[in-house]
Amino acid sequence: MTDTSSDSIWIVTDEAPQITVTEGTKGITGNTRSWREETTETTKSAGDAVKVSTQKLEQEMTHFLEVVGRLFSRAEQQAKTHNGMQLDEIELSVEISGEGEVKLIGNGAKAGGKGAIKLVFRRQEPK
After folding, report:
1. What residues contact residue 22 under an 8 Å CB cut-off, 6+ apart?
2. By the 8 A CB rule, do 55 and 7 touch?
């Protein structure tokens, strides 16, 4: 199955892969009229965005949210049991890699420069 525009999403990465391109020219040298071949290598950026399957991204995000949900559910139970506290809001910063992986950004990471996604979970008010 090939990706169509609705089956994939572009992820902008700050890790632009570098490729080496060999370029060559042929010409006549001097009075001897002999052919020479000259090659040069140039390093170019292959781009700063990659296509990721939306299905892969959905699977990764679903798995991430399931794991985070279990962690916070357990943390809330512990807080209630030991301190009588209630967890009202959780704020996370995540990043999506060029492979479609959803990663939690830790304390020492520079979230602003990485294009983090901020997820805020609030306790639902009783109706």
Report:
1. 39, 40, 41
2. yes
